[in-house]
Amino acid sequence: MKHDGRSIDHKTLEYIRKTALDRIDAGEPVAVVMASFKLCRTTGYKWIEARDNGGAEALKARVHPGPPSKLSAAQKQTVRKWICGKDPRQFGIDFGLWTRRIVQELIKLRFNLSVSLATVGKVLAELEITPQNRYNVRINVTLLQLLPGKKRTIHG
What global pTM score does this model have? Predict the structure, then answer.
């Protein structure tokens, strides 16, 4: 049974590519090398071609960014303005804490865009908006009140 190389993590696959090509360069047949890794023989030829055209750099693991965001930079900043310093109840939502689902619904209502919860999480991480529990927020408020001469407002 052949394995699908897409199910192997990127670092391991990089190691397999380098090891396989070292063995092929040493004279071992491509079919035998690739069979030992339970991968398709033609993949070995693709790796040889990639190395010949792009050098050792072509064999390295790379981060694959995925599809472009559905939200523009301006829309992301609008999402930031919704969340920072505001409460979901100000938007007519009967819940006092921000959740990814609430942000997802607002994006759908305001921008007419359907995005997944994972996309919402990615956008929030990109905007450096992280979850906080009420206990941490209370501590931050208390600390601000104890510091003399400091501004007493809290920004999300």
Answer: 0.53
**Tens digits of residue pLDDT in 83-142:** 888 888 888 888 888 889 999 999 999 999 999 999 999 999 899 887 765 444 444 445
Tens-digit pLDDT profile for residues 7-17: 788 889 999 99
Q: Where are the domains of the chain?
A: 5-59, 76-131
Q: Please say whether the beta carbons of 117 and 100 come within 8 A.
A: yes
Single out the residue of 43, 47, 36 nearest to residue 4, CA to CA: 43
User: Please, how many CA atoms are within 13 Å of residue 7, restricted to the half-sphere of its CB?
Assistant: 5
Give the count of beta carbons closer than 10 Å to the beta carbon of residue 53. 8
The distance from CA 131 to its chain's CA centroid, rounded to whole angstroms, is: 17
- Crossing angle of the two packed helices 41-54 and 10-25, in degrees rounded to 10: 90
